[in-house]
Amino acid sequence: MKAESRLAPPATRRGAGLRFLLVLMAVAAVYGASAAATEFHPVVVVRDADVFVQLLGEMWPDNRERWVFLLTDFLPRLKVPFIQTLQIAILGTLAGAVLAVPFVVLASNNLTRNPVVYAAAKALMNLLRTVPELLYASIFVAAVGFGPFPGVLALTVFSMAIVAKLTSESVEAVDPGPLEALEAAGATRAQVIAYAVVPQVLPLFVSYVLYVFEINVRVSTVLGLVGAGGIGQQLQLMLSLFQYENAFIIILATFVLVAAIDYASARVRARLV
Amino acid sequence: MGRSHGSGLGRLRAVLYRVLLLAVCGWAVAWAASGIRVDADRIARGLPAIGRILKLMFPLQVGPESAPWLAVAAAGAAGVTALEAARRRRWPVLGTVLLGVVVLYAVADREWLGPAVLATGQSLAIALMGTTVGALLALPLGFWAARNMVVYGVVAALARQLLNAVRTFPEIILAVFFVAAYGPGPLAGVMAVGLHSIGMLAKLYADVIENIDRGPIEALTAAGASPLETVWFAVIPQVLPEFIASALYRFEINMRSATTLGLVGAGGVGVILLQALSFRRWPVVGTALLVIVLTVTAIDSASAWLRRRII
Q: How far is B60 from chain A, CA to nearest CA, in Å?
């Protein structure tokens, strides 16, 4: 016993040391491979950083006339693309929320008893969520042509998946009492949903939709980079014409819009839940 | 709750608020629909086009001789998934992997599967490098932006404004700038992901630091520890798990955006997608999408598992 306790600590320490060394080597290998795959080299990063800093510097309008021109002449012309951006976000959110409703029913285990249908609906929502909105947008642009329509489609698919996932999780967490009471009283499934589930879940559903709307406003400002309409198209144009001051005004205005919508949406959500 | 129960006036206000909210929403939708002009005609022509393209993207490339084998493999994979699900495993990992392999074998474009996997690996490397660089550089900024870590509140407020300014730029816009600075390639992607992650993570770090328990700090200060010792022994142990968890969560998000950065020339699988889309090579698009879906799913579950172990 005594000999054992004297021997044990060094042995475990050596084992732990070996494990630590192996983990360290594995981490080093992963990072080495990643650095090679991304051509990441600290010297290059620092050496060429001045070009990036210079580009950022070029975004700042350096005299008063430029500022006056940008704010009084250029900014008002952005009104139409900004309106389009908001409209894309609103329509995408609405269509996604409406299309999510049937999937909420199918992907909740207390409303859908058939395990195959339930698993398939859950899996579909998870699959749709793994593809970023910008990829959807670029695919839809190639499929149906340039403009805001593919942007709305991209937001619709993504919003549907998020709203359905979040809401179905809330539906699965509802108080089962009212459900069982209605079922015992012989209510149909539609009646159970209408009287036992909807009243409990509706505020959460609305707050998820608002949350997705916030995300969609953010995304809709860059959809234009892949040709899916909105202010991003102007931004893309200004960047490709090297008009960095104009691009800066667009980014600034976008920030104000996003911040205002986040604020309003957060206030409404705080009252809901 | 108590407020609305109290008086009829409160209830009236709540009802009015809802009616107003509904009216605003209804007006906003009507306004948006009138602006985009999503007429029935456009939808009627657009949706079938997407259906046709889906068929082109995922063609069943299985000859009659391999079809029975594939059916057996698919049934086996589905069986394993069902078995794992029946045992109430949180994620049917093995079954999902098997199903993924079967699906890839059945519908992936054989010629482009290898390049798509390599390019997705590059996206993964971009996300990993970017998140790591961002998470490390965010550390000093996080402490700087935490109100309880600096002597003057103004200094912290300044840092928070700086972080707000960084977060103003969406990742994809940063990528455009870095492509201009470093040339097209994955390095631009790493820099975009890294810079954006600094802005996001430093803010989260600062929030975590502001909510720590002050007890250990006061104890160490009373015992005569230097500021550096106080941070190392009283702050770091409290915040490290949450720091790592937020960095992991950021890694999941960055993996998704690393797949899109190629659309502006910043490396990764987006480059393949961009080329395939511009030549309308739908099978290649489908294959790349499949690889993305499988990779992102795998990373999400691995990261979620790690996060649950840490916190």
A: 19
Closest-CA distance, A112 to chain B, in angstroms, reads 16
Which of B32, B126, B172 has its CB closest to that of A134?
B172
Same domain assignment for residues B114 and B99: no
Same domain, B91 and B124: no
Kindly state the tokens that stand for A134: 């910008």
- Collect the ranges in chain B with pLDDT lower than 50: 1-4
Kindly state whether residues B156 and B282 are assigned to the same domain: yes
Which residues does chain A have within 8 Å of residue B297's beta carbon, measured at their own beta carbons?
Answer: 126-127, 130
Number of helices followed by number of strands (H, E) in chain A: 14, 0
User: Considering CB atoms only, which of A55, A132, A152 is closest to B257?
Assistant: A132
Confidence class for position A139, pLDDT limits 50, 70, 90: very high
Task: Go through the domains of chain A in sequence order and give each one's CATH number.
Answer: 2-59 (no CATH), 64-272 (1.10.3720.10)
* Residue B99 and residue B174 share a domain: no
Asked if B38 and B140 sit in the same domain, the reply is no
The parent domain of residue B31 ranges over: 2-57
Nearest CA in chain B to A36: B125
Q: What are the tens digits of pLDDT across the range A207-236?
A: 999 999 999 999 999 999 999 988 999 998
Q: Do A127 and B297 lie within an 8 Å CB cutoff?
A: yes
Number of domains in chain B: 3
Is the same domain home to B123 and B229? yes
C-alpha–C-alpha distance, residues B303 and B43, integer Å: 39
Sign of the C-alpha dihedral, residues A9, A14, A16, A20? positive
What string of DSSP letters covers B74-121? HHHHHHHHHHHHHTT-SS-HHHHHHHHHHHHHHHS-HHHHHHHHHHHH
Mean pLDDT of chain B: 86
On whether residue B298 sits in a domain, the answer given is: yes
Give A48 to chain B, closest Cα distance, Å. Answer: 6
